[in-house]
Every structure is written in structure tokens, then in C-alpha cells.
Amino acid sequence: QRTNHSQMASSAIVLLLVLLIPSAFTFSSKFVNDQLRLWFEPQDVTTTFGEAINLTLWIDGYSYTKNFSVQFSDSENAFVKIKPPICRFYEDEFQNNLTTFQAIGRRPGRFIVKASVEPERFVDDQRLFVRLKVALSQPLIIIALIIGWTYTACWSSGYYPQIYLNYKRQNVVGLSFDFLHINIIGHVSYAIFNSFMYWNSAIEQEYFKRHPYGLNPVIGNDVGFAVHACFATGFTILQCYVYENGGNSISKTAKAIIILYFHIIIGAACSVWFWSYHWLDFLYVLSYIKLSTTLVKYFPQAYMNYKRQSTEGFAIMNRLLDIAGGLFGILQMVINAWNFGQHKLRNSKYVFLF
């Protein structure tokens, strides 16, 4: 019975990877064109109130005109001062070139600093903007960054008390198999979402088309955290089939939930292969699966504790570290909200807070 359950979990994960790996080779490479291309890099810049910071404009390619100019939009002039507000480039000055502008935030907040090119013909200016964050205090930026690493450390280390407890007891009696198997589905979905968003240029370009002034929401830390969570949870599942489990197994309800998830994944993949959906939509489906697993995965363990009237075999430190990480995350949001003059949460922060 242990072997069957192990094969079921392994087959499910392999199926998910088989659906995705071939598609990785069908994605196109980064946008390449011989037209004139202008972009700001980095596009996410943080400064403090009244402090000047350089915005770097990169210029590459061939222009079909002898000269052109870059001018900043007036929409943010009340909050951000740009020097110079307009810059002209002449023939032979823009091949593999870069220049800098100076930005000064006049109030705390988050602003999109946009620029335009004249004349507009034959110019790729899709990334010709900067998301400028103006803070009240530089020390608070550092404190918020430290808090961010702290809650990441809490969440990442939360897997090891259970692993150590299983090893110490040489059994997994008291640990819910349902919790672990639903959890691994969520972590694998999250890891795939982060990996493709971070490394695949075609998906990134599609994201930029839908969010013209957005930046890739996934950073390297997100990928590392998700992959680490997959391995840690997978190792805990392996312990369940190596150590004495007291007859514990995956319940019919959990099996039904897992099967439902894979039907959703297969359906989403078929929508991409046979209809006009994009792989970005498929990744969104995986992100929703991750969110839903977070909603349901704790109930099996809570029910098992209630049924046994005991938490023996379940490492309470796991949940304490989860709670600590969540509290640090909320603290970081409060500090950033005050430091950047934002008193309302963005939609993405509601999901994080939840």
C-alpha cells in the first residue's frame, strides 16, 4: 500500500513536469529586431524624498531617421522632477549608447516616469519607463529589507523541525499524509510558475503586453524559496514511506482533491495546445492552485489532531515559524506603507496578507 501511494504521488508530479518541459523548447527567444530600441534599466528604482537619483537610458539598434528626441511626460511633473526634461540625439550618436537623466522625488509614493520618442516611426519603446519609489527614510528601507529576509528565513526553516522529529522518532505517526500530498501539489505549481516567469522570455514578453507598465513580479529569491519548498516537502513525504506510519495513508477526500487538481492542470494545458490561450494563462492557473492548496491543506492535520486528541508526532514549531513569518510580513507591509506614503493595500498585497 505504501508503494502504491508513493507511485501515485511520483506519477502525479512526473505528469505535471511532462506537460511543461516540451513547451519550454517551443517558446521563442527574446525579442530581437534591428530597429531602434530604447529602454530604461533598471526599471524599478528606489530613492528618498528630495534625493537625486540617476535613470539610465539604453539605446541600441538602427534609426531610420537622422535624429530623434526623448521627452518625459508631464503627468508626473508635480511629484517627480526630471533633468533634463528633453534630450536630443543626432546621427551616429545612438548606436549602442546610453545616457542618464536625473530624477528627484518631490513627495513620497510610487510613480511611473514615462518618456516618449519623436519621431515615433520604427522605434521599440515598450520599456521606456521607470517605476520610481520615493521613500521618506533610507533606514526604513533597510529595515524593511531585513524583515523581508527574516520572514523568508522563517518560512524556509519551518520544514526542518518536522523532518528532524520524524528522524528522531523513526516514525511519522501523527503526521497527516493528506496535508503533505496536497502541499506538494501547491509547492510544485508555485515552483513552476516562478521558474517560467523568471527564466522564460516569451512568457515575460506576454506579461509585458498585458501589463505595459508592469515589471516581472518574480525575482530570484522567489524561485529559490519555491524550489527549496518542493525538495523539503518531497523529503518529508519520502520519510512517510520509509518510517513506521501506523497505518496512516492518503484519505479518499485528499485523493479526490489531488485528482481534481490534475484534471484542472490537464484542461488548462489542453486549452493552450488546442485553443488560443497563452502559456501565461496556464501559469496563472497554477498560481490559483497554489493559493487553493493553502486554503485547504491545514484542515487534514487539524482534524487528525482533534481525532487523536494529541499533537504527538506533529512538530508545532512548523506552525510557530509560519506564524512568525506571517507577522514579519505584515510588519514589513506596514513599514513600507508609511515609508512610501501609501495607506491602501494593492491587490497583490491582499493576497500576500491572506
UniProtKB/TrEMBL annotation:
Its main location: membrane. It catalyses: L-cystine(out) + H(+)(out) = L-cystine(in) + H(+)(in). One of its GO terms (cellular component) is lysosomal membrane. Residues 1-26 form the signal peptide. GO terms for molecular function: L-cystine transmembrane transporter activity. Keywords: Lysosome, Membrane, Repeat, Signal, Transmembrane, Transmembrane helix, Transport. The keyword Transmembrane applies. The keyword NAD does not apply. The chain crosses the membrane at residues 140-160, 172-193, 225-244, 256-276, 282-299, 320-340. It is found in: Lysosome membrane. Pfam families: PQ-loop. It is a multi-pass membrane protein. Belongs to the cystinosin family. This is Cystinosin homolog. It comes from Culex pipiens.
